[in-house]
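mind reviewing both lines:
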Amino acid sequence: MTRLWLTAALCIAAAAQPQWQPDLSYVERDGSQLKLDLARPPDDGFLHPLVVFVHGGAWRSGSKAAYAPVLQMLAARGYAAAAIDYRLAPRHRFPAQQEDIAAALQFLAAHAREWSIDTRRAALAGDSAGGHLALMQALRPPAGSSPAVTIRAVINIFGVADLPTWHLSTEGEKLEGLTAGQILAGAFGTSDRSSPILKDASPLTWLRAGGPAILTLHGDADPVVPIAQARLLHQRLQELGVPERLEVLPGAGHTIAANDIPQAVALTLSHLNTYLGSYPSAAFQRIDSHAHIAPPPPAFLALLDQLNIRLLNVTLIDPFQPGYDKPEPIASMAAAIAAQAGGRISWAAALDSSGFESPSYAARESARLRADFARGAVAVKMYKAIGLRLQDALGLYVLPDHPAFSPVLETIEKDGRTLLTHLAEPLSSWSPLDPKDPHSAFYRLNPAWHMAQHPERPSWQAVIDARDRMLAAHPRLRVIGCHLGSMEHDVDEIAKRLDRFPNFAVDTTARLPNLMLQPRDKVRSFFLKYQDRILWGTDLMELEWKDPASAIQRTERMYTSEWRYLVTSDSFPTSNGPVQGLALPEPVARKIFHENALKWIPLLNSSAGSKP
């Protein structure tokens, strides 16, 4: 990388002023302090992805100082960015340089909370020898070093990929007065191209499927590291299926010419945005308060650990859906999942309406729920079949305020549990299918829930009014209206209920698309005003795990997208055109993604994963 590129990068930086921390001592070696420079976004309570730069100089010269402008440019774009000095050859031979990189990463990880660094999203970048060292650190950390950060991407700027085949071209017969052999001997202790030492110190040796995404920038007239090195790397990465890109800069030598600067900067930012994302992440544990999963594969639990997310596995009983019409084995399976998940997963039982007209129903159902509470259920779900499909002996539709359920709700209240209510459907269910409606695809596949096809059933207003009467009749029962309480079409409707019923909260489960169709400022004001009454939930639905790898990728994309809509001002596509994210401040996001779940479902506090 050249000073020209860095200066240009600084000139196109965003207006936000980063925090600048130069010359931080990260480790002592041989009586001297090794230092790094750090630039990071202004403190906002969130964590930011990390990019660490390693300077070039044939492993024997160079300085972190050249990177100062690009660090500040990246900090203005949402990244924490560092550049390090390291011990130099020939006094210090490889892997000393890589050991220093590992120490710098451990130092940054140790201060991650203090400096708002997201260690789970990191990239390494370097030019020339720095490109080689960045690749080696990402592919084969030195023995004994702990994985302080997760390296997801590498930017390799004309770095050496394969030491045994690296030679200076005839145009660059010497580098700083030295031949390639002399440079290798000084840095690696040998110039013998057949030596195992050089193979062991070559990134090409350690490439693997599933490795970090690699962007290589290389001039096709480079006399110091000929383009053949980049092509070797490119070919092998393609064979392994590793995400990568080789961008050949026509006519460029061992530098980036002025006319290539805009492209180089754009490619670098694109690579970082794709594989790290410039958006902030949570400094707290997120709680998905509404999910539905069967026994998950270990890789899913690993994802929850990686993202620091725990979830509430919500069971349901639907008397009209075979396989879900009885409490068992659903409840036992949910209890077993929670017991095996190490605190990452809690579970909610479900209200069973079968036999609700029997005189013994309330006592029987209360006893059954208490048995579920004894094995860990922290809440109870009341499902939408009540109000929309369940009928009594006379053929009348049973609404949620039916007297048969009242004693059971009192049991839930007395036992300190929370009632989760999925009652009614989106208002659009009572209208003809509209391709612009977020739920039209669901109704095409599930016509039993498309109320426009069932005019004999209760109206949306009738079910909502019955739900409201239930809330009024049980003022001490904590109730969460799932799916924004089925009032997702208008936040003003939700606000009326939140104002009226202090015991009522709502979750966002599967309803963010509806919010995106409403005026952004109105929705944001709603979240700010009722920040203590809104919980985050997703409706994650994995009941079969037919393709675990795809399911896990899909889950991570969903978690990322929902987070970004709520906490950034990014643009999101909708049927009515792009909409801007809500950019909620960190204290509000902390409530919605964490604190409100613990407040409204208090027994989540007793689970092992309830750390902040």
